[in-house]
Amino acid sequence: MTVYNSMEMMIITAARALENGSIVGVGTGAPCAAAMLAQRTSSPDLIIIFEAGGIDPDLPEMPISVGDSRTFCNASMAGSMNTTMSLCARGFVDYTFLGGAQIDKYGNLNSTLIGAWEDPKVRLPGSGGANDFASFCRKMMVMTPQNKKRFVEKLDFLTTPGWLAGKDSRKKSGLPEHAGPHQVITDMSVMDFEQDSGRMRVVSVNPGYSFSDVQANCGFELLCATELVKTPEPTEKELRILREQVDPQRIVIGR
Amino acid sequence: MDIQEKGKGPLFTDPDPDAARAFFMKKSRNKTDKRMTLKQAVETFVQDGNYLGIGGFGANRTPVAVCHEIVRQRKKNLGFAGHTATHDMQILSAGKVFNRIDMAYGIGLEARGLSKSARQYMESGQVEVCEWTNYALSLRLQAAAMGVPFLPIRSMLGTQTFEHSGAVNVYCPFTGKKIVLVPALSPDVSFIHVHEADIYGNGLFEGIAVADIELAHASKRLILTCERLVSHRAMTRKPHRTDIPYFIVDAVCEVPFGAYPGTMPYEYFSDEVHLKDWLDAENDPEKLAVFLQKNIYGCEDFSDYIQVNGGMKRLQELRHLELLIKSEIKDK
After folding, report:
1. Is residue A195 packed enough to be buried (19+ CB in 10 Å), middle (13-18) or exposed (0-12)?
2. Which of A19, B4, B89, B172 is 20 to 30 A from residue B268's alpha carbon, by CA?
3. What is the ipTM of this complex?
């Protein structure tokens, strides 16, 4: 039997979702590992871009920062913030991976604060480039642990747009069309967003979990796909490449 | 174009391009030797209350030496653009030198964790905040660099990031689509760390530009710190490589390893051990006071700081890391 941990499972699931020949805007950590793994498995022509200006690097190892030298190592271009963000704004960027302290049922994210704006209990970093990426990129992906603290009915602050209050509301807001939340990958399940309502929906459960486990670890009511499937397990090859080539120091997968 | 919605956030700088033009018209164009020590440059050009722009991104090609000098000189009531401000914000927060911030990203050191000094300072109520996104701040600088009062952007819509920003949204006069307008941002004084500069202020850097070209042109005063001075001839021989022309620059300070403990492309990688020491020291106010005394207040200048943290030996290791060269040399 293949032995793997939940972080490896999430990264491998995310890597499989990235279509060959597309462009993905990533940060550091697990999303970067997923993109690097995809390049070494199913999507050799996947193009990685970083918000600080690294365009299509051949990453020798996982970067520590979204702007460190690795992000433009053997790259097609060392550009600028405006190079990357204007590519996104022009509709060139297919995927982005984002995260936050909180996510709601429409895939909106909070990375600004916990508590009230006037007197925050915890002040967090803010949008960074997340709001821009989520506004522009075709498919916004989220990788996060599944628990009630993160999956909340109401965000303390809406930093980054998902489907806002439903698909119509996103359209009405003036945000560009053909962009929005696509998939949420957790340690228990994979979720998408229902076509009309834009509400989060469980489409597959990871081995060892059921829909009710996922619901029990979520602070809002989840939808469930009519044909709920099992998330395919990692293959030996995927695990080997992830462990030996992508993250040999186990910076991300070791946690 | 009627304003549809207006962010509640404060504007810390004047977006009027005519105010910036009035300043630039009077700025000296003289091709003079602008070398100064960093101490002199900060004494001369940073006044209490000024709004700062800090080049680089995260802890990459960030003018860390300048942040130390500002803290060492105990400047007060500054404002700054937090455009992925990480270690720079950590230093400025430890010194409590600012009271307002345009914040796109701050407090965090990316994957390394959150700075406790920065977090506590931001939660203390002593800092006025305006929310932005990274792209919005880049475009605000670009607007100032272009000499226009604003630029349009299609992000921020529908979010509280917009509500707490200083942006507005309108219907586009050409397409009827809703669009956000972000106001020009002209810092009083900015700092950019480059690889090479000549004594007049022509500057060149390697690797990603982040928003430094926009920042250079948006800023009223501009201080370059550089890894090394080069001859004017060396610069003009390859003018296509010049990133910053001399006449927009006010001072040139040669500060080798001036981005330490951050990364400088093709020169040295970040010192993750020392950055972790910073984060650890922040867990205890007494420990932090000792740490700051050792690393900033007790240092005469930045080269002292580097000596205190391993000097040449450590820098050599970081150079190897940056260049992906294994440090061990085997016996022949």
Report:
1. exposed
2. B89
3. 0.97
